[in-house]
Amino acid sequence: MRIAVIGAGVMGEVIATSIIEKGVATVESVVASDPELTRRQCISERCGIATMAENRRAIQDADVILLTIKPQTLPFICHDLAGHIAPDQLVLSIIAGTTIHTLCEGLLHASVVRAMPNMPAQIGQGMSLWMATPDVTPEQKEQAQSILAAMGNEFEVHEEKYLDMATAVSGSGPAYVFLFIEAMIDAAVHIGFSRPMAHDLVMQTVNGSAAYAQRSGKHPADLRNMVTSPGGTTTEALLALESAGFRAAMTKAVLAAYDKTRALGGVSSK
Ligand SMILES: NC(=O)c1ccc[n+]([C@@H]2O[C@H](COP(=O)([O-])OP(=O)(O)OC[C@H]3O[C@@H](n4cnc5c(N)ncnc54)[C@H](OP(=O)(O)O)[C@@H]3O)[C@@H](O)[C@H]2O)c1
Question: Is 33 in contact with 5 (CB distance < 8 Å)?
Answer without folding.
Answer: yes
